[in-house]
Amino acid sequence: MGIEGKIVAITGASSGIGRATAKLLAERGAFVVLGARREEALAAIVDEITDAGGKAVYKVTDVRQRSDLEALVTLAIEHGGRLDVIVNNAGIGPISRFDALRVEDWDAMIDVNLRGTLYGIAAALPVFQRQRTGHVINIVSTAGIKILPTMGVYAATKNAVRTISEALRQEAGPHLRVTEISPGMISTDFTSSITDPAVKSAIGERASNIAIPPASIARGIAYAIEQPADVDVGSIVIRPTAQD
């Protein structure tokens, strides 16, 4: 029970939800193993954590590459002797209407949001099976709960991960915990990946009015992790009170 001493790997850890989660878990005594594509940002957050007395390491990680996820898990084991939790957080959202035919954006969301999560599961699952303990946390989205225009492909990738999470939970048996967390509108750099100017402007304006901080999601992740080993928090939805 608790977070102190746990070895936690986090993807998409250089900003937003991943960064907030890394900081919170490290403050609570976890050893965090951080992966993302931006090395400079990763190094900065690791320095911030270690300067505050926490424990953190990083490895540049592109979740589109299965070998990168395997290397991240290996790094966790090298430093901590095991892996307790993997947080599959990396995600992008270049949303648009279907008739904009931004097919390259569709492919990118499938590669990062869906395939990247599967690669994270594939890297961690053999370790968890050997240990007979472990926790998979997949970051999904409220976009998959309430379907809206422009979010069709993004929501589809997130709902696919929701389905994967539930199937994995049922397959996992008594020693593996599986949690999916659906954030609503969060104050992150989500809009930076949107390539459609009109959609980017609309989402950005909406976020500036109602978005809640990434730390809100980090607390939800911490809550799921800190439960006793026989308690599986299956699903958490965290959204602004002002969100429809």
From TrEMBL:
Keywords: Oxidoreductase. Transmembrane segments: none annotated. The keyword Transcription does not apply. GO terms for molecular function: oxidoreductase activity, acting on the CH-OH group of donors, NAD or NADP as acceptor. InterPro entries: NAD(P)-bd_dom_sf, Sc_DH/Rdtase_CS, SDR_fam. It comes from the Bacteria. It holds the Pfam family adh_short. Belongs to the short-chain dehydrogenases/reductases (SDR) family. This is SDR family oxidoreductase. It comes from Mesorhizobium zhangyense. The lineage of its organism: Bacteria, Pseudomonadati, Pseudomonadota, Alphaproteobacteria, Hyphomicrobiales.
